[in-house]
Amino acid sequence: MEYNIDLKNFTTFGVSANAKKFATFSTEEEARNLTKNNNEALLILGGGSNVLLTQDFNGLVLKNEIKGISIIEKNNVTVVLKVGAGEEWHNFVLHTIENGYFGIENMSLIPGSVGASPMQNIGAYGVEIKDVFEKLEALEIETGEIHTFTKEACAFGYRESVFKHALKGKFIITHVYFHLSLVEKISTKYGAIEQELLKNGISNPTSKDVSNAVIAIRSSKLPNPKDLGNAGSFFKNPVVPIKLYNKIRETFSNVPSYPIDENSVKVPAGWLIESAGWKGKKIGACGVHVNQALVLVNYGGATGNDILNLSTEIIENVYQKFGIVLEREVNIL
Length: 333
Known about the structure:
The protein is an alpha+beta fold. It is built from 9 helices and 20 strands.
């Protein structure tokens, strides 16, 4: 156990905030012992890629470092992997590619840990965690018991799960099970993957080729948190009523959309923010990234409140211009 630790190096935004107490755990038993009889506020960190600290944390911060990747089931068609929640997500993706497991190559280079992936139902280029999810194991903080959650129990939605709502703060995810294919299944229809492959003269791509294409695309748009503090996409893409979308099209005929159902469409938040004039805008030590309007960045020395205030200005401005309320994807603490 450590005391009065600056969490700056434990989140990808790189903002300073002190934790009253700090410890790491690498087994379920260690997590159980650290949380047993704890009467203080508790914060669990994985990769720290989806959190913005706006104040000191007057309680106990625990960093999940449970590692390990093992085969639970395997046949000629599929494989089920058990993965420690403390594994880095991108390293896990590379592991699957190296071993000929298909299904998550489109989610290459997403920051964060494996344990955070079902909490957020992370996704990219047409694939989400729920598409490859088998189950997860989680430690109930109050009782110390291990519970198993099926896909249905996780209540996955767009960047949502039960762990962000009804069960928020009640469990520590320890292991996640993934159901992947041993039969090659390549998806290149989303985003700029096909363009990137063609640019490199690849007409019959492997999963490694798709992963490399995604890495190249993400690297060209998204700053590396090691170089420029950020949490990836700061806002969710809003789902809006078709009536509102049609009204916006009267003024902005080029507004993009993706159909959800007959009554609603999804509008890219990045387009809304860029169209409102925020892309590349810098305010003090923080700002909106020059290549991707969805990403708020810490240029060095920004506080969590600086970044939070910037996001509030963007939300208010986008609402004034389009009548759409943006929702933050990042957890604010």
